[in-house]
Amino acid sequence: SAYVDTELESKLYYYYVRSRDKTNNLSVATSTLSLTPTGRYSSPPVIVSQPSSTVQSFAASFEWSTNRAASSFVEYGTGMSLGKTNGQVDSLTAHKVDITGLSAATKYYYRVKFIDPDGNIGTSEIGNFTTNDPPTISEVLVDGIGLDAATASWSTNMSGTCTLNYGEGSFTSSIKESSGGTAHIQKMVGLKNATAYVYQIDCLDADSNSFSSDQYTFSTLEQPRVENFTVQNKENVDIPTIELNYTTTHPTTTLVKFKGSNETAYHNYLLSDLATEHKATIEALDPAIEYEVIATGIDAAGVEAASMTAKVTTLTDSRPPSITTNRAIGRVIGLGKDSRANLYVKIETDELTKVKVLFGKGTILGNFEQSTPEDPANTYHLITIPVDPGQVYSYVIEAVDMADNKTVSNSATVVVEGAKQNATEIVINTFSSKFGWITKLWTK
After folding, report:
1. Per-residue pLDDT tens for 16-61?
2. What pTM, to 2 d.p., does this model score?
3. What does the H/E/C string look like for the chain?
């Protein structure tokens, strides 16, 4: 049973209790109590929700609740004696206290403390917690390195917002993340090729605690360069052909891009072996066309060499004609004193040519005194040259194709057959040898 006396004044009141049973018999009164009401609690609030903690590397948060409003404090330290206190005086039933400035990976002891408005102090049992490991940056890597760009990646063991600092020898550029996370990647652009760079990562965790990586280095790729580039027409070929030679500063494939002035797109000539000395022969080009030729190559890292460009005009025909047939015979036409002789020269060439024959009497190798008229363009020629019967003649052939390429044959020698006697001359000569007087009569 209970009795609540309300609306009292702040003065001394006396109370005793008597009870009555079911037959209405009244008990003896209890002893008398006296009390002056003050309106204040004389005992601390009771914890109705035990303290719980959320731990970080450098901070911790504590929450609990009481059945009456009170202030909120946490006493803590690295030993059972505690020694440090943090909190607020606002009277609440739901309490929360944040502690910062802790050391990472460290064991702490703590208890919560609360004071009601009447000055009654309550505490919890002493507990402990261990802060998390310090924030770290790991798996730092720079890959995708090119001539003017590279990609940096790293990981953090807790969410952090990081800044990538880099430069040549010192940090002159920065890339700052807009949001936090544990996996990070940033691309550095506008770099110089064949240049060494330093870089470092600075991060802030959710509580603005800073942590940094070591300093690292990387170098951008060096671009190969084409040097000593020459291009020229190949001689003695039927189809226009060009030959190229060049070197590169370090090993690359052989890559030649070319197009004629009558074309819009480049053709590619590629040899995949890596080398520093390069040679290419490009055939089946159009005749008498200006070609733009670009010499370059790809190195082992996939970087294309700084190219060189040249222009060359292909030849119409650069090969002299070949004389495939060269036969000559000297024949006598007619008999006796009226006979005459011709030298017949049969000539065949492997392409259209204009031909003339230079000749002279006797066995000679040069300085021919006479020449036939130029025979019109053809692949077959039969040249007739009037000569003296029974003489030795030498000759050479000059064959010129449509591109003015000339072929001169070796000197050849032909013996022209002698004149044949007619019937009268045969009779006279016969009798002359037997009867000398007949010859005298004939002459008279």
Report:
1. 999 999 999 999 999 999 988 877 888 899 999 999 999 988 899 9
2. 0.55
3. CCCCCCCCCCCCEEECCCCECCCCCECCCCCCEEECCCCCCCCCCCEEEEEEEEECCCEEEEEEEEEEEEEEEEEEECCCCCCEEEEEEEEEEEEEEEEECCCCCCEEEEEEEEECCCCCEEECCCEEEECCCCCCEEEEEEECCCCCEEEEEEEEEEEEEEEEEEECCCCCEEEECCCCEEEEEEEEECCCCCCEEEEEEEEEECCCCEEECCCEEEECCCCCEEEEEEEEECCCCCCCCEEEEEEEEEEEEEEEEEEECCCCCCEEEEEEEEEEEEEEEECCCCCCCEEEEEEECECCCCCECECEEEEEECCCCCCCCCEEEEEEEEEEECEHHHCEEEEEEEEEEEEEEEEEEEEEECCCCCCCCEECCCEEEEEEEEEEEEECCCCEEEEEEEEEECCCCEEECCCEEEECCCCECCHHHHHHHHHHHHCHHHHHHHHC
